[in-house]
């Protein structure tokens, strides 16, 4: 398969591209590289070690030898204060979109300082979600892969929620944040606190499979320790 690339929606802070069937792909300068495929990716570094599926790293002036697919992101450290990313075209405050509920029966404070960037539809990919999520085989399914950036200022709790009809993966792009799990929609019930530095992706998506073929999540949220930009990858199962 021939290597193909497609740019993500531009802003002056973070540039990116989606690469399919990467072969001897040069990474010039410093970049966050996210393995969006379901098989390990490989770089030219020795000793050879895989970059697992749904994971990421920061590469500097090196080569990706092989990957099913990647997102490659570069941050412009001289673009200005990170918070100004919300002034870029098509960025929206989440409360202005969802109102007072982030899902059925899940209240959301509309004044939460949480912004979402424009979403790109990157590809249609096929994989076995049961195996990808660490369970038994369930058969191959087709998924539409989408990507967008988010921003929240330091100290923001982005809303404890539980409902998604897709597989989501988060990669830290700027700042330090956390992905957190809870027993209930209550901060006092915190059970897991995953600290995310720049270039880090939460290992294995938070969700599991239901008997009906959907996805089940624990109560969870993103929290920004500093001003944060992160990448959300969404795998939407197609009929």
What does this structure look like?
By secondary structure, the protein is mostly beta strands. It has helices at 94-98, 129-132, and strands at residues 4-7, 14-35, 41-43, 50-51, 55-75, 92-93, 101-103, 106-107, 115-116, 120-127, 141-152, 167-174, 177-182, 190-196, 208-209, 215-216, 219-224, 228-237. It starts with a strand and ends with a strand.
Question: What gyration radius follows from the Cα positions, in whole Å?
Answer: 18 Å
Question: Residue-averaged pLDDT, rounded?
Answer: 93
> Per the principal axes of the C-alpha atoms, what is the gross shape?
globular
Residue ranges: pLDDT <50 for 5 or more in a row?
Answer: none
Strand content: over 45%
Compute the number of strand runs.
18
Major pleated sheet = 6 strands, antiparallel
Order of helices and strands: EEEEEEHEEEEHEEEEEEEE
Keywords:
six-stranded antiparallel beta sheet, 18 strands, mainly beta, single chain, five-stranded antiparallel beta sheet
Task: Please outline the helices and strands.
Blueprint: E1 4-7, E2 14-35, E3 41-43, E4 50-51, E5 55-75, E6 92-93, H1 94-98, E7 101-103, E8 106-107, E9 115-116, E10 120-127, H2 129-132, E11 141-152, E12 167-174, E13 177-182, E14 190-196, E15 208-209, E16 215-216, E17 219-224, E18 228-237
Antiparallel strand pairs: 1-2, 2-5, 3-4, 3-5, 6-9, 7-8, 9-11, 10-11, 11-18, 12-18, 13-14, 13-17, 15-16
